[in-house]
Amino acid sequence: MSGKGKVKVGIIGSQFEGEIHAASFQMIPDEAEVVAVASPTPGHAQKLAVRFGIARVFTDYKKMLAEKDIEMVTIAAPNYLHAQMTVDIAGAGKHVVCEKPLCMTLEEADVMIETCRSKGVLLMYAEELFFTPKYVKAKEMADQGAFGRVYLVKQMEKHFGPHAPWFWDVERSGGGVFMDMGCHGIAFCYWFLGRPKIKTVYCQMATHVHGDKTKGEDDSLCILEFDNSAVGLIENSWARRGGMEDRIEVYGEGGVTYADLHMGNALPTYSEYGYGYAVEKAPTTKGWTYPVFEELWNYGFPQEMRHFARCVRGKEEPQATGEDGRVIQEVLFAGYQSAATGSKTQLPFQADGFKRPIDLWLKGR
Ligand SMILES: NC(=O)c1ccc[n+]([C@@H]2O[C@H](COP(=O)([O-])OP(=O)(O)OC[C@H]3O[C@@H](n4cnc5c(N)ncnc54)[C@H](O)[C@@H]3O)[C@@H](O)[C@H]2O)c1
How far apart are alpha carbons 259 and 254 in whole angstroms? Predict the structure, then answer.
């Protein structure tokens, strides 16, 4: 590895998030360059490679890991594969960017963190909300004292459900909407408040509309109590009609701020005929729609990948780590336990013997 110039990147996965990674790196050409992509379905990685000018294509990611010049590998594959992939990437001496949620179990999280530490590579946790420009602005204002003591942080993300079958299969996803998108909200509240200790987790969840497709929950509410007495309130849904919603609210004794990621950056639009593309998961482009511009930049994906590449070069310190991912994983377990018992779960919480967070909720049903 040269340790200079653009960071050479390999991507595992070539569908939804793999494409976001490729597009994001294309937007930060001074810092990094995607040189390889791997995914098992013949033709899929090739298609992404053609679209983004990626030179090398693999169906077996382990073969990609043998390529000497690759310095950082991003994981954009289903959740149940994250731990083994991380161990393999670190074993090949390459830095790891792992998509959310970090993994399935806390034992896996510990192995991922320890393996990367012992191999001398970074384990970076891909939580783009830490880089979402609007949300970063809200945090900057909070940190400057704009709202005084912040006592409530809310984050919500809702849509009508994910695009790929594995999300609905709890064996491969580890949980329903709380695992898939609650992990964003937990991370957001924790990060926004400056990573205070989380004392308790309370969750309520149900499957309202997708019971034919999944054993998982399609709607969840989560309340976090932090030891600085602030509260996090996280709402998630795969049952919400009308496309995607991602919002925050921040309340302090001295002020308040609201940010709506989609509607706040959209062009209220009416079309009889429809048009190409409005925004992620929009069900239609006919009638009233709210197309966003610079979608990836507004989400923070290129900024996130820029930061990770700069961490590899030692220009920045990782702001989203395996340790962050582990905290969130613990809250996921505690949240499913709370939904099962109907009471708050105290942290620290250890769920020995459970292979995935949702098993704590499903065991009593
Ligand atoms: N940060 C975000 O906002 C965000 C958004 C969407 C997805 N994600 C995360 O990204 C990850 C991937 O999700 P997605 O939406 O891209 O799923 P997807 O189903 O669209 O794509 C998954 C990719 O993984 C590949 N894959 C499957 N098994 C593999 C294996 N054994 N080896 C190598 N590749 C394999 C598939 O071929 C496919 O290319 C998930 O962990 C998901 O939670 C994050």
Answer: 17
